[in-house]
Automatic annotation (TrEMBL):
UniProt protein name: Aminopeptidase N
UniProt enzyme class: hydrolase
Chain coiled-coil ranges: none
Pfam families: DUF3458, DUF3458_C, Peptidase_M1, Peptidase_M1_N
Residue ranges occupied by any Peptidase M1 alanyl aminopeptidase C-terminal domain in the UniProt entry: 548-870
Taxonomic path: Bacteria, Pseudomonadati, Pseudomonadota, Gammaproteobacteria, Cellvibrionales
Single GO molecular function: alanyl aminopeptidase activity
Residues of the Peptidase M1 alanyl aminopeptidase Ig-like fold domain: 444-543
Positions of the Peptidase M1 membrane alanine aminopeptidase domain: 226-437
Catalytic reaction(s) noted: Release of an N-terminal amino acid, Xaa-|-Yaa- from a peptide, amide or arylamide. Xaa is preferably Ala, but may be most amino acids including Pro (slow action). When a terminal hydrophobic residue is followed by a prolyl residue, the two may be released as an intact Xaa-Pro dipeptide
Length: 871
């Protein structure tokens, strides 16, 4: 397969001023007629080169230019699409082709989900619908007519409906017109037997927008939360960014078969059902929060993505990094800011740091790719958002807003680059971000080594910061980055010291040099630094904290994020020691001071319960693995299990007390306070279950039987699955399934809880689950629940020393690749990080990868991920 390079970017040869599409929907033979008004791009140079159109899996029926059918000598069908000879600078191109939505299991292009027609065009799915210059810098005004049988009563596309009616042959039709020029990746079509809930939103300038959420009839009761979230997002974008919605209608459609979370098609967002549908009985608190954030994310794309789009796919982080930053701030404003930050940083540190240290490591603006779908990554999204956040931190709220206003003003209606974004920030504020730009072109997680010294005689305190960035062999030497480090300095009483003449108690240090000294004066005693407050940069900070100092920070730091971070550092220290002791055959033990620190937190009723839960939760095995240079999976599992059980036993009375106090039956509401209380209650429950004592397991069983909402019910089931006695586990699993078997989202949860069970025998159970009637290999949510749950969320069973986990996943990847390459390429990732594992496991992983390569006939998607890892 061919590698595409950013350096090879060229402007398009031809532009498409308007695109008229006509669909006659049939499951196996949909007819697509397109009429394109094409003109030579004045910016593209002289002459009339052939017109190259992308097209995959299309049956070409006819091509006409200005009404005359083209003879075969005037065009050529290629592997990528069509090459057409052109003899005039402007013309109407009309193409007829046929496609087969029913057999389209890749879920890109036009496909069927439970009988409903729907589309997914980002990044390069439109070429599976018709021949087209399928690149984001070709923007066109679309008009779409859909003809379908009447058993598909709802016919939707982008923009406003301008016509509808009956056809003579008993079918019906609808025509939609989108007044905004857009790239093909934002095109959408939906046709099905759907119901909708409707509401309105009045924009700040007084326009009334119709809001509709479409689902299958059985799910119509699950739309309320998404609708509420949408309205909140619309208000928030007006208040915080001054962005108003621009069409008269905004539609969301829920579909069960979807490769990602959702898609921001202009005026017609398409959502994975799991990211839009919720009711208290069926959805957990995290599902409610995920829905709010994804509804916000897709809505915010209307400006950061649609009104201003990307010039090419290397610029993906321009829209995704910025939009993730926007949705994170939205969620922080709607819920607990500190907890949202902790959750996002945990994800980044555990999974993005691992990606950046692995074989697919890339900058947030990659330089090359084989398959762009493989670059919808945590690096582009989450690290990209951190880069935008750093700009926000460096510039401050007002200047950042000035920069974003200028960016939207300058680039509205066009396709921009990451460089354009930075330039707007610079020009709006007369700042120089030359060095900051390296964040866009350099991969790897920077490491900051921090040391300090104190001169008692002068009262001077200095912090020395050195930066480095371990990169993979094939990367050029890295350049020093511009890194904002927010700090505070704590005195012996745990109060923030004054840092400068302005009386600030917090400062953002701007690190720009490989090594830099920062000095502070006026101290009577050496302060304790609180570094990288609020995680002000996506870096690793190394400072030689002692256990005592970390406990002090945990108790006193005014920065909530760093209070949590101190607990994480402390836990990592303990887990590292336990791993060492296990390897050298020493008896395992947990420091009493650590247990007491946890006890204090648990008993502290002044702390936000959600924060208590976050502090109590031990770092996952995966995040411990990421911190280690060489991963010894068995030692990690033993160390963490030991720490968990020891804490559970030592803190059992306090855990029970806190659990009991929080176990009140009040009507469910997904508000921040109640979510926080449930989070702590269920963290206590899972610790109690880990004692494996009868009385604790009875509490779990009781919660399972009496829970009034899915958060409590799922937490109890999870605790039972991991710690309950065999017969009780089996009956709970069966009982739960019988109750919820008709609810797709709950069944996905049920599958996921089983596949992530740390119990021995889980792989055998998974082999049964993939034969269970509820499992469907063509449905990505089911694959993510069962196979993804095993490979990504079951560290212990996936990393069995005989390699059985790796070989099983490899086998599934090969099979899945024939059905859905995007999903297969994601599933294989956990096996590709073999280089960091100790010999026994890394050999098995390589063997599994080689097996995939040897199977032959791989998609570009899987080929890219596997070959980059093995070579
Ligand atoms: N912008 C959307 C990307 C997306 C996508 C990409 C590849 C394959 C399938 C996909 N579905 C949606 C999602 C988002 O970031 O909003
Ligand atoms: Zn997005």
């Amino acid at each position: 397969p061919k590698t595409i390079y950013l350096k090879d970017y060229q402007v398009p040869d031809y532009l498409v001023d308007s695109t008229d599409l006509h669909f006659e929907l049939e499951p196996k033979a949909t007819l697509v007629k397109s009429q394109l008004k094409i003109r030579r791009n004045p910016k593209a140079g002289q002459g009339l080169p052939p017109l190259l159109l992308d097209g995959i899996d299309l049956e070409l029926l006819s091509i006409a230019i200005d009404g005359s059918i083209l003879p075969e000598v005037s065009y050529q069908e290629t592997l990528q699409g069509l090459s057409i000879l052109v003899d005039k600078p402007e013309f109407i191109l009309e193409i007829h082709n046929r496609i087969n939505p029913e057999d389209n299991t890749s879920l890109e292009g036009l496909y069927l989900s439970n009988g409903m027609y729907c589309t997914q065009c980002e990044a390069e799915g439109f070429r599976k619908i018709t021949f087209y210059p399928d690149r984001p810098d070709v923007m066109s005004k679309f008009t779409t007519t859909i003809v379908a049988p009447k058993d598909h009563p709802v016919l939707l596309s982008n923009g406003n409906q301008i016509d509808f009616g009956d056809c003579e042959d008993g079918r019906h039709f609808a025509t939609w017109e989108d007044p905004f020029a857009k790239p093909s990746y934002l095109f959408a079509l939906v046709a099905g037997d759907l119901e909708n809930v409707e509401d309105t939103f009045t924009t700040s300038s007084g326009r009334e927008v119709k809001l509709q959420i479409f689902t299958e009839a059985k799910n119509i009761g699950k739309c309320e939360h998404a609708m509420r979230s949408l309205k909140k997002a619309m208000s928030w974008d007006e208040e915080v960014y001054g962005r108003e919605y621009d069409l008269d209608i905004f539609m969301i459609v829920a579909v069960d078969h979807f490769n990602m979370g959702a898609m921001e098609n202009k005026g017609l967002n398409i959502f994975n059902s799991a990211c839009v549908l919720a009711s208290p009985e069926t959805a957990t608190d995290s599902a409610f929060q995920r829905i709010e954030s994804i509804v916000g994310h897709e809505y915010f794309h209307n400006w950061s993505g649609n009104r201003v789009t990307c010039r090419d796919w290397f610029q993906l982080s321009l829209k995704e990094g910025f939009t993730v930053f926007r949705d994170a701030e939205f969620s922080a404003d709607m819920n607990s800011r500190a907890v949202k930050r902790i959750e996002d940083v945990s994800l980044l540190r555990t999974n993005q740091f691992a990606e950046d240290a692995g074989p697919m490591s890339h900058p947030i603006r990659p330089d090359s790719y084989i398959e762009i779908s493989n670059f919808y990554t945590l690096t582009v999204y989450e690290k990209g958002a951190e880069v935008v956040r750093m700009l926000h931190t460096l510039l401050g709220k007002e200047k950042f807003r000035k920069g974003s206003d200028l960016y939207f003003e300058r680039h509205d209606g066009s396709a921009a680059t990451c460089e354009d974004f930075i330039l707007s920030m610079e020009d709006a504020n007369q700042v120089n971000l030359t060095q900051f730009r390296h964040w866009y072109s350099q991969a790897g997680t920077p490491i900051l080594e921090v040391t300090d010294s104190f001169d008692q005689a002068t009262g001077r305190y200095s912090l020395k910061v050195s930066q480095s960035c371990p990169t993979r062999a094939n990367q050029d030497k890295s350049l020093p980055l511009h890194i904002p480090i927010k700090i505070g300095l704590l005195d012996v009483d745990g109060n923030n010291s004054i840092l400068n003449n302005e009386g600030d108690i917090e400062e953002v240090l701007e690190v720009t040099q490989p090594e830099q000294l920062f000095e502070f004066s006026g101290f009577r005693e050496k302060p304790l630094p609180s570094l990288l407050r609020d995680f002000s940069a996506p870096v690793k900070v190394r400072y030689p904290y002692t256990g005592k100092q970390l406990i002090f920070l945990m108790r006193n730091d005014s920065d909530t994020f760093n209070r949590w971070d101190a607990s994480q550092r402390l836990a990592f220290m303990a887990l590292t020691q336990l791993q060492q002791d296990y390897r050298s055959g020493e008896a395992l033990q947990l420091q009493p001071e650590l247990i007491e620190a946890y006890r204090d937190v648990l008993k502290d009723s002044t702390l936000d319960p959600a924060l208590v839960a976050e502090i109590l939760r031990l770092p996952s095995e995966q995040s411990v693995a990421e911190m280690n240079d060489l991963i010894d999976a068995e030692a990690i599992v033993v160390a963490r299990d030991f720490a968990l059980k020891t804490l559970a036993t030592a803190l059992a009375p306090e855990l029970l007390q806190r659990y009991t106090a929080l176990d009140h039956q009040k009507p469910y509401s997904p508000n921040a306070k109640d979510i926080a209380e449930r989070s702590l209650k269920n963290t206590c429950l899972s610790y109690l279950a880990a004692t494996e004592k009868d009385d604790a397991l009875n509490i779990v069983q009781k919660q399972f039987e009496t829970a009034g909402n899915m958060t409590d019910s799922a937490a109890a089931l999870s605790a039972l699955i991991n710690y309950g006695s065999a017969p009780k586990v089996d009956s709970a699993i069966q009982e739960f399934y019988q109750r919820w078997k008709d609810d797709t989202q709950v069944v996905e949860l049920w599958l996921g809880l089983q596949s992530s069970s740390a119990r021995n025998g889980t792989l055998a159970n998974i082999k049964n689950l993939i034969k269970h009637p509820s499992f469907e290999i063509k449905n990505p949510n089911k694959v993510r629940a069962v196979l993804g749950g095993f490979a990504n969320r079951n560290f212990k069973q996936f990393h069995k020393e005989d390699g059985s986990g790796f070989f099983f996943i490899a086998e599934q990847v090969v099979m899945l690749d024939k059905i859905n390459p995007q999903i297969a390429a994601r599933l294989v990732v956990p096996i590709t990080r073999w280089q960091k594992y100790s010999d026994d496991l890394s050999g098995k992983m390589r063997e599994a990868l080689q097996g995939i390569l040897d199977s032959g006939g791989l998609s570009k998607d899987v080929f890219e991920v596997v070959s980059k890892s093995i070579n």
